[in-house]
User: Which sequence fits this backbone?
DNA sequence: CTTAATCATAGTTAAAGCCTATCAATTAAT
DNA sequence: ATTAATTGATAGGCTTTAACTATGATTAAG
């Protein structure tokens, strides 16, 4: 295998037409350059340089190969400068995965600061259900997930970002809408509207509801939080909504969002990465930025 | 300095996503590849590979650098295949220098066989006076000269090709035109037309003439053999012409070309190269070809 | 719980690259 | 003409490094 150093020696000889000077320009001794060049010639099986006492010149073969050598060295230089540019840990593309019940309500609160804090990171946003996101994270298609933490993620590395309370969304006219102090126990025997299977919010919300003695309304399953919200607004039932979704879009005339007393049902939003993920500095910056952005909103 | 082998390891990892298989494809042991790759990462200061037990993947930086690495390796491959192509000693460009009093009369006799014998050599022909040719040979602008040998060429390497007799060119009406047996002594007291200074033929021809007791006609100097020939044809005098020039273009009605008896004046045509010239096999083939071509013509 | 797979580590060896010192050949100068 | 300087090649020794084998640690799967 050709060595890049040898190509440097060759181009140096071409430039200086003088072994001593060429060696100096390569910061090696003259015998070193002389020897390496001879080895290269032997390896290629052809003479590259005509040696004369007073006068060194390249053979036609040497001339052609110097051209090729320059191309190789240029490519190598590009490799190195590319590596140098990549050295900035706070630059490059970053694929962020979020779940549908979080993305549209969270992103408006965090992207501004993320883009300010990490101006050289290009964020690509991917919205998918937890299972898909984990798969893609594992495959390397995604770099970072932001979603509710589940035990099945223990093989990954995760950072707690914030706890998002779940609120009770009811029609204004509902008996629970005007209750002074609301607790999970109040849900007993209520029928709860839910999202479709696959949304982790459904499992979490229904977990709380079941333990409170409420039941799932199996007559309909919403495919998104917004349809769910519309169903509540049109009086078809009540449901648990994440605080960010409740806060953002009030639909205030028709829906009442009730805060629970302690113990408040929550979902713990975490940032998840592969263990050994290469851009930890970047991850830490994201964690800090999101926590900061959320500290003002979740009180 | 980056090493090409490391780039191969990197691309192999990208291809196989598996250290063992990648190592196998590079014909090294897995620890070797593992270690070299780690060194490369350390050297660049950035992580290229995410290592997991079950799953190896490139970091975004690694992904980009694999692209660069491929370009470098491709350039290196081109270098090597170019060297391979140059391995054929009977291929490539060859710059041949000749003097004006020889080129137009010799080339028609030798080029056909040269092109047949060395089909992959591209001959570039350069016509100049001896002094210029020697300078250009020394500078490497020319590879091979074909010209009359002079002692000042002893620092070069030379191969005798053939002896070209000099003939006496006279008008048909000249007293020497019809002489049965012609010798140099017959030139005594004749005035000889000559070429301009700088043409080595002038010096050689006049050397013979002077020692025979002839004189130079200083009233005019021809800039080429053809003008010289025309001057003879128009009766302005006599001159010595090289046999090849006499043979080719007879101008037979008006000029008589006389052969000298022994000692025949000649110029010894040699092939001259730099000592240590790299393409000796090619040179030997040229020498053989020219000698063969000329053996039929100079008898 | 054990087995297999996979990447990292440790220790060793062989080769390669580099250095200093010196030689040989040539040119330039006294 | 002899000496001094230049220049590329050679010799011998040192250091680095790339390679190997053997082994360890961790995880996934049977």
Assistant:
């Amino acid at each position: 295998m050709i060595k890049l150093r040898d190509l440097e020696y060759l181009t140096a000889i071409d430039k200086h037409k003088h072994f001593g000077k060429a060696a100096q320009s390569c910061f090696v001794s003259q015998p070193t350059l002389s020897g390496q060049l001879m080895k290269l010639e032997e390896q290629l099986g052809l003479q590259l340089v005509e040696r004369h006492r007073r006068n060194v010149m390249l053979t036609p073969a040497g001339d052609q190969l110097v051209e090729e050598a320059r191309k190789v060295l240029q490519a190598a230089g590009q490799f190195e400068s590319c590596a140098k540019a990549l050295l900035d840990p706070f630059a490059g593309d970053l694929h962020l995965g979020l779940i549908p019940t979080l993305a549209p309500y969270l992103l408006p609160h965090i992207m501004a600061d993320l883009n300010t804090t990490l101006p050289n990171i290009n964020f690509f946003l991917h919205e998918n259900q937890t299972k898909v996101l984990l798969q893609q994270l594992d495959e390397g298609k995604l770099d970072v997930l932001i979603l509710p933490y589940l035990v099945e993620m223990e093989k990954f590395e995760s950072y707690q970002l914030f706890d998002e309370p779940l609120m009770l969304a009811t029609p204004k006219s509902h008996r629970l809408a005007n209750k002074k102090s609301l607790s999970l126990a109040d849900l007993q025997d209520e029928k709860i509207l839910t999202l479709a299977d696959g949304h982790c919010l459904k499992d979490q919300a229904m977990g709380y509801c079941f333990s409170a003695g409420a039941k799932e309304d199996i007559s309909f399953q919403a495919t998104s939080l917004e349809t769910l919200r519309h169903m509540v607004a049109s009086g078809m039932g009540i449901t648990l909504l994440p605080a960010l979704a409740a806060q953002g879009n009030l639909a205030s005339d028709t829906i009442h969002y009730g805060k629970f007393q302690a113990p408040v049902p929550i979902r713990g939003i975490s940032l998840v990465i592969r263990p050994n993920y290469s851009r930890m500095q970047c991850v830490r910056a994201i964690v800090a930025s999101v926590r900061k952005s959320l500290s003002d909103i979740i009180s």
The first strand of chain A starts at residue 49 and ends at 51. Chain A touches chain B through 47 residues (CB under 8 Å). Chain A has ten helices and eleven strands. Chain A has a mean pLDDT of 89.
